[in-house]
Amino acid sequence: MSETEGVKAPLSNKERMTIDRVAMPEQAGDARAHNFGEVNLGLTYQLAMLEAERCIQCPKPFCVDGCPVRVDIPRFIKSLRDGDLPAAAESLLGDNALPCVTGRVCPQETQCEQVCIRAKKGNPVAIGYLERFVADWAQANPDALPTANPTQTGKKVGIVGSGPAGLTAAGELVKKGHDVTVFEAFHAPGGVLIYGIPEFRLPKDIVQAEVDRLQRAGVKLELDAIVGRTYTIPELREDYDALFLAVGAGLPVFMNVPGENFKGVYSANEYLTRVNLMGAWSPNSQTPILHGQKVVVVGGGNVAMDSVRTGRRLGAEEATIVYRRSADELPARKEEVHHAKDEGVRFEFLAAPVEVLADENRWVTGLRCIRMELGEPDASGRRRPKAIPGSEFVIDCDLVVVAIGTKANPLLTGSAPELNVNEWGYLITDEYGMSSLPGVFAGGDIVRGAATVILAMGDGKRSAAAIDSWLNGVWPPPPEANAAKPKKEAAVAGN
Amino acid sequence: MHSVLEREQLSPNVVRLVVNAPRIAKVRRPGQFVIVRRGPGGERIPLTIADNDPEAGTITLMIQAIGASTTELTNLQVGDTIQDVAGPLGAETHLPPAGTHAVCVGGGVGTAVLLPIVRALGEKGVKVTSVIGGRSKEWVILEKELREAGDVVTCTDDGSYGRHGFVTQALKDLLDAGGVDNVYAIGPVPMMRAVAEMTKPYGVETTVSLNAIMVDGTGMCGGCRVTIGGETKYACVDGPEFNAHQVNFQELADRLTTYRSFETSALERKKAEEAAALGACATTEVQA
Ligand SMILES: Cc1cc2nc3c(=O)[nH]c(=O)nc-3n(C[C@H](O)[C@H](O)[C@H](O)COP(=O)(O)OP(=O)(O)OC[C@H]3O[C@@H](n4cnc5c(N)ncnc54)[C@H](O)[C@@H]3O)c2cc1C
Ligand SMILES: Cc1cc2nc3c(=O)[nH]c(=O)nc-3n(C[C@H](O)[C@H](O)[C@H](O)COP(=O)(O)OP(=O)(O)OC[C@H]3O[C@@H](n4cnc5c(N)ncnc54)[C@H](O)[C@@H]3O)c2cc1C
Ligand code: FES
């Protein structure tokens, strides 16, 4: 193919099919197990251009259907391949408000890449890598992109929660010229992107840069504002023409076994918040964190993988995942499991905790577990684990992190009894994302239960379109406002 | 940003700050607290809202310098700023009916946490007797403010002021005299535990405020979990006030020692930094 390099004659599909999928350059496993630098280093320009050539530009692209926010994947890849990065970026950012984030944390292997035509014979196009490449370029070159100057509508929208759902909705709504304020309980915006997902997977300045971009576009941010405490929903309804509630599913679930309150048992929320939001991974932080030598993390989702890999980086010689089902059922993204293994994480499958053990000063010394076997499939379709009587064993450890899921936090919903919630406390919305209160919409984990970044963003995008209709007095919204309904709902963060 | 508008030294290690926080000043209820973060890299520190002035848009905090972060806060001067003040958090104090008699026991900085409760009780028409104490006279704080809402008994460990002895002894006398319907006790864990054990045989309803270690203050991390009547509760949302007779004080005391080694080193680091800074100043002066 050397003769095509200079003049850039387009490749034939046959030629495209001969190119192998690029590998993501990454930090070596033994080195990165001891630092918080990003693991995936991102594609170089050459690698990105090579990978872009692999896309055969299907006339009916399945990848777009596989994406919960229906990013026009072939289009941005085409622009990239043509060397037109500004066009690629504009196309991508038009469809996806936080591509730097999704390019890093989306489970592409069960979404766009799973249905990529090339996956039928070999490896799918590395859509996630290309997304990240284009998004990072856009973040580094903000001036290369046109700035929108929408006419102001004078309508005010209040958004509660600055996670991916809230930020996406905010971005969409300022584009329409509405006056948008985001209320965030914490002292920093980003939701799970800031306090949950660690630096080595999603650098915090990347998230901050996305937030900065939204602020430049006109989004107002009020930090330290806990709705349900600092403000109430009825108050906000008086001051705003519409509200979008995107407070996530922030309540930790504990194991409910004896010894759970001993020193050295953390919820994953607390462990990760101390390390990420409060910066406790750095010795300069004023917030303390326990550095376990032998860390056990209970759970098998992304949260568990993030916790165990954090434990390794904080100096644990042994870091073990205890998961009650087998390797096949692990809900975490494949890449994360693979990275964890490379970093020396041990997996104890088919085991469930029964008791936390401690010394006379109530410091954790071990986790007593019981062996499980898989029985009949349960409601989720996964085989239900059953304890094997008499099979108990102890894993020595000095730190236990519980990552077995989260629940709805009643702080906000409890303060507005008119909001209908289901039996688990999640908000009930109609097909347009509107709650039981007119003009109050909701989306993300507080509606779905712990799900994914991209599903939360999809909700933000859809609700923004519906809110725009509502503010314009067009109700119910026209069908296209509701077009991006996700086809598939994946739960990754649970157990 | 929240600016410090007033500062007063109440005792050798307790400082009163009046801080600008209009929104919180407007909606805060007795018993609630804020989480304060001095600036970038700072820890999130829970502090009771001792008072509020909705018109002026201010809240009052009373802070005991106990570790690195609280020392930093007590060193703030008028005109300095605090980056984050989030709240109001926690449930409001449950007040008994008017005409009843409540004894409010405060130890150390617990007296500051007690003050808003005493005021709320007084406003409701509850007869209040406050029992406050400290090591010696200079450690007894807020006597004047508490007196505005009822009687005050002061105690010092060394007898330098008021009654000689612990607050629990004064409480016992009041319980023996009879007519006490409620007790509120706020202070170090051993003191709250002693009060709980003392009032139990008298069958007097007793409320304590638990100073569990917190991060978010919204129920999201579970770090503040305490065991109440055998059940796990979150001090930040279910409390901080709980029925003293149901609290597992041993567990609370234990959990409060989680970061002891870290804290000692943080404080030492801070002192060393301050010493170094002082040293640097001294040298500059010499050079100048
Ligand atoms: C450790 C971890 C790793 C994960 N890894 C992945 C991954 O790799 N890929 C993936 O797709 N998904 C992952 N997830 C799941 C994903 O992060 C969530 O599904 C997603 O963040 C949900 O977005 P959200 O906007 O609904 O809520 P959140 O991100 O939870 O944001 C909610 C925000 O609302 C704020 N808030 C809450 N209550 C109030 C209130 N009363 N007033 C004001 N503000 C409030 C919170 O502080 C928070 O900032 C992970 C989750 C965790 C915890
Ligand atoms: C709801 C609530 C309200 C509070 N109100 C006030 C108040 O009005 N005024 C005030 O001065 N303090 C108050 N506190 C206590 C205050 O938050 C702690 O003193 C502070 O967090 C200690 O931080 P530090 O970094 O200075 O000390 P650290 O270095 O963290 O700790 C120093 C020592 O204090 C112990 N300690 C750690 N955390 C706490 C804690 N939460 N409570 C008590 N001891 C602790 C440690 O074990 C250690 O021995 C309150 C706490 C809670 C939970
Ligand atoms: S402080 Fe995190 S749950 Fe109470």
Describe this structure in words.
- The complex is a heterodimer of chains A (about 500) and B (about 290).
- Chain A has 20 helices and 16 strands.
- Chain A is about 35% helix and about 15% strand.
- By secondary structure, chain A is of the alpha/beta class.
- The model of chain A is unreliable at about 480-495 (pLDDT under 50).
- In chain A, strand 7, helix 16 (about 300-315) and strand 8 (about 320) form a beta-alpha-beta unit.
- Chain B is α/β, with parallel strands linked by helices.
- Helix content of chain B is about 30%, strand content about 30%.
- In chain B, helix 5 runs parallel beside helix 6 (about 190-200).
- Residues about 280-288 of chain B have low confidence and may be disordered.
- Chains A and B meet through strand 5 and helix 15 of A and helix 1, strand 8, helix 7 and helix 8 of B.
- Bound molecules: flavin-adenine dinucleotide (2 copies) and FE2/S2 (inorganic) cluster.
- FE2/S2 (inorganic) cluster (FES) binds near residues 214, 215, 216 and 224 of chain B.
Kindly give the count of domains of chain A. Answer: 3
Each distinct ligand: flavin-adenine dinucleotide, FE2/S2 (inorganic) cluster
Principal-axis shape of chain A: globular
Mean pLDDT of chain B: 90
Total beta strands of chain A: 16
User: What structural category arises from helix and sheet content of chain A?
Assistant: alpha/beta
Identify the most extensive interface between protein chains.
Answer: A-B, 37 and 38 residues
Shape of chain B: globular
Rounded to an integer, what's the Rg of chain A over CA atoms? 23 Å
Strands, helices and their partners?
The complex is a heterodimer of chains A (495) and B (288).
Chain A: H1 4-7, H2 13-17, H3 29-32, H4 45-52, H5 62-66, H6 73-81, H7 85-95, H8 99-105, H9 112-115, H10 127-140, E1 156-160, H11 164-175, E2 179-183, H12 192-195, H13 204-216, E3 220-222, H14 233-239, E4 242-245, E5 251-252, E6 265-267, H15 268-277, E7 294-298, H16 302-313, E8 318-322, H17 334-342, E9 346-348, E10 351-358, E11 364-377, E12 383-387, E13 393-396, E14 399-402, E15 406-407, H18 410-413, E16 440-442, H19 445-448, H20 453-471
Parallel strand pairs in A: 1-2, 1-4, 2-3, 4-16, 6-14, 7-8, 7-14, 8-9
Antiparallel strand pairs in A: 5-15, 10-11, 11-12, 11-13
Helix pairs in contact in A: 4-6, 6-7, 6-10, 7-10, 8-10, 11-20, 15-16
Chain B: E1 2-11, E2 14-20, H1 22-27, E3 33-37, E4 45-48, E5 51-53, E6 58-64, H2 68-74, E7 81-82, E8 84-89, E9 101-107, H3 110-124, E10 127-134, H4 143-147, E11 151-156, E12 163-164, H5 167-177, E13 182-186, H6 189-199, E14 205-209, E15 225-228, E16 231-234, E17 241-243, H7 249-255, H8 260-287
Parallel strand pairs in B: 9-10, 9-13, 10-11, 11-12, 13-14
Antiparallel strand pairs in B: 1-2, 1-7, 2-6, 3-4, 3-8, 5-6, 14-17, 15-16
Helix pairs in contact in B: 5-6
The complex binds flavin-adenine dinucleotide (2 copies) and FE2/S2 (inorganic) cluster.
